[in-house]
Amino acid sequence: MFAIGMVRSIAQPDIVQFVLRIALAVPFWKSGILKWTGFLHLSDTAVTLFTDEFMIHLPGGPYPFPAPTVFAFLSDRARSCFRSCLFLAWLLASRHWDFSS
Q: What is the C-alpha to C-alpha distance for residues 30 and 53, in angstroms, rounded to an integer?
């Protein structure tokens, strides 16, 4: 019984949720960072993915991207922007704010 009480005191829901959110965010952060070699400079592998691997699937067959460098840059910028928006939404609308009253 003592062990259960100790686990409940250590593993509070706020702490567990924070740790899980960080653990889930780390792989996405690393995958996004690996595509950049400098400030606003994409790595060659990111451009190669949009040149050789990624295709636009429309009727008539898969088509290559018309400007792979531009699409690679825009997609990674959008990924960074959306990641920041999700973090801000989590901060602003966290469970600590009670809007029910």
A: 21
Closest alpha carbon to 71 in 94, 49, 89:
49
* Integer angstrom CA distances of residue 42 from 34, 36, 53, 74: 9, 5, 16, 11
Q: Distances from the Cα of 70 to the Cαs of 26, 33, 66, in angstroms?
A: 26, 18, 9
SS3 16: helix
- Please state the φ and ψ torsions of residue 93, each to the nearest 5 degrees: -115, 40
Q: Could you read off the pLDDT of 10-24 as tens digits, one per residue?
A: 777 777 777 887 888
Pull the structure tokens for residue 4: 């259960």
Residues across the chain: 101
pTM of the model as a whole = 0.60
